[in-house]
Amino acid sequence: MYLASLSIDMDPLECYHRIHGCELPREDPGVLMDATLDTWLRLLDRLQARATFFLVAQGTKREHVQEILARGHEVGNHTWSHPYGHSQLPREELIAQVSRAHDTLTAAGAEVTGFRAPGYHLSALLYEVLSDLGYHYSSSQMGSWTYMAAKTAVRTLMVLRGRKSGSHSHPLTDMLAPVYPYAPCPAKPWQRSSHGEEGVIEIPVSRGPAPLSLPATGGFLFLFRAPRLLMPPSRYPLVLNFHGIELWPDERPLDPRILSSEFALRVPLARRLTIIEEALQFYRQREYLFLPLRELACAYQSKS
Ligand SMILES: [Zn+2]
Fold first, then answer.
1. pTM for this structure?
2. Does domain 2-303 have CATH number 3.30.470.10?
3. How far apart, in whole angstroms, are the C-alpha atoms of residue 125 and residue 140?
4. Contact 16, 256 (CB under 8 A)
5. 195 C-alpha to center of ligand 1: Å?
6. Distance 8 CA to ligand 1 centre (A)
7. Domain residue ranges in the chain
8. Distance from residue 118's CA to the centre of ligand 1 (Å)
9. What's residue 197's pLDDT?
10. How far is the CA of 98 from the centre of ligand 1 (A)?
11. Which residues keep their CB under 5 angstroms from ion ligand 1?
12. Residue 64 to residue 70: CA distance in whole angstroms
């Protein structure tokens, strides 16, 4: 068997308003969880798959955390309020983003040992903060050049249309990050440490084979509908990353700029569910075993 994990980042609706330069929504910050969590949980039950939900603690209700845990999934830390520019935050603010979320999720009953950075980037300071807090793993790097190019293209297009995106670009050195789980070098966390550090292990979101190196994200799965293109080379662990919004209900209104920019939302919900089911079936036929990331980290470390 080969290791795989399915993770879902439950970014609040406000994040999409910020990315696409729209006015901020007036709704309760938990609206995305209310609108999509049950659909995700029912899909995972049908697939008999246990996953990792990365939660933004601000706006996450206690009952959301408890429902996720009761259904057998893992809860991970995705910061307090999802700052895209986290790598530019002063140390104290970054510590507060991680530890405040940790305390909130823990108080709701979760045992939190994993972290995912907003916008995919593990900075040296973030690595240090996670190590100090005793985290077991981070799943924050995304070394796909296609992802970086697509993000830059969207941001440039927005500037040309007179809009400003709230997302941030990250250093190109992230493209050098390994495609497999690794112990990062503390000063350059995109590199594998040569000293075998015992701290946080980084489990990058997968990228498919070169030259395309497509990111293993829901957006690219819904766009190309070709699970094969998202499989990492050499049967390294497959880490798939979805976002809560990708199961947004068809009938529920959303800002048209978000609807036109998110690939997933151009496809009817019933079809999106089928695409995910077929992808999982494809990977399972190739002997991938889906585990929450915490279990994948332990299994990978005991194998290597
Ligand atoms: Zn996020």
1. 0.94
2. no
3. 13
4. no
5. 31
6. 9
7. 2-303
8. 4
9. 63
10. 13
11. 9, 11, 118
12. 10
